[in-house]
Design brief:
The protein has 218 residues and is α/β, with parallel strands linked by helices. It contains 7 helices and 11 strands. The protein folds into 2 domains: 123 residues, NAD(P)-binding Rossmann-like Domain (Rossmann fold), CATH 3.40.50; 86 residues, Dihydrodipicolinate Reductase, domain 2, CATH 3.30.360.10. The chain is 31% helix and 27% strand. A 6-stranded parallel β-sheet has the order 2-1-3-4-5-11, with helices on both faces. Strands 6, 7, 8, 9 and 10 form a 5-stranded mixed β-sheet that branches. Strand 1, helix 1 and strand 2 form a beta-alpha-beta unit. Helix 5 packs parallel to helix 6. Bound molecules: nicotinamide-adenine-dinucleotide (NAD).
């Protein structure tokens, strides 16, 4: 059994992760940390093998540092940190994904592939109006992959924030007399759960740290 504590447990993602962990046969939910619940991360670290953090861009790095210092593996879904900041968190096993949905990972990989053949592109990302950071971590990662693939992402990345949305992204490539659109839609937060549970199972056996991107575990 893997003992899992959730940081940001009262949030939209945190609540969904708690339910997913409780539903997994090989995991036990041992703690719910969140200022809204009056429970500090330090109070749950003693019981956990792994902490899953879906908190806020301004708290995630400190939370990850506290986990690693306590010898607890950390799976981070909170977006906003750069790779350099993640590398500076410290010794231990840290896994981070800007997007835990399998379809979103495929969208990013297809975009990288397309960029080699259709170099000009724009990214439109659309999220619920409670999202704190813009552009999204997924959009920034997609732009990196497109550039790695030889493409050019026109600035700015477009960020739409509206009630009713969950997490969506469209990458549009333009060529001579044609366009190609690659679109992914997370229509519920459950879309992220298979990826989160996979990361919880694998974070104790990483070859390197931090590892960024679900594609590294697939
Ligand atoms: N990687 C992914 O696949 C993915 C998917 C969806 C959302 N996200 C990211 O996850 C994060 C959380 O999103 P959300 O929609 O659940 O937000 P949310 O605002 O609903 O929840 C955040 C929770 O964190 C709590 N919190 C605040 N400070 C904290 C601290 N210091 N320690 C622990 N918890 C703290 C808040 O009280 C709140 O309950 C955001 O950064 C979002 O972009 C990532």
């Amino acid at each position: 059994m893997i003992s899992v504590a959730v940081s940001g447990a009262a949030g939209r993602m945190g609540q969904t992760v708690c339910a997913a962990v409780e539903g997994a046969d090989d995991m036990a939910l041992v703690g719910r940390a969140d200022p809204q619940l009056g429970v500090a991360l330090q109070d749950v670290l003693g019981d956990a093998d792994v902490v899953v953090d879906f908190s806020r861009p301004d708290s995630a790095l400190g939370n990850a540092r506290a986990c690693l210092e306590a010898g607890v593996h950390c799976v981070m879904g909170t977006t906003g940190a750069t790779f350099e900041e993640l590398r500076g968190v410290g010794e231990g096993n840290l896994f981070v994904a800007p997007n835990f949905a399998i379809g979103a990972v495929l969208m990013m990989q297809f975009a990288r592939q397309a960029a080699a053949h259709m170099t000009e592109s724009e990214i439109v990302e659309l999220h619920h109006d409670g999202k704190l950071d813009a552009p999204s971590g997924t959009a920034k990662r997609t732009a990196e992959l497109i550039r790695d693939g030889g493409g050019n992402v026109h600035e700015p990345i477009h960020s739409v924030r509206l009630p009713g949305l969950v997490a969506h992204q469209e990458v549009i490539f333009g060529g001579l007399g044609e366009t190609l659109s690659i679109r992914h839609d997370s229509i519920s937060r459950e879309s992220f759960m298979p990826g989160v549970l996979l990361a919880v199972r694998r974070v104790g056996r990483l070859d390197d740290s931090p590892v960024v991107g679900l594609e590294n575990l697939l």
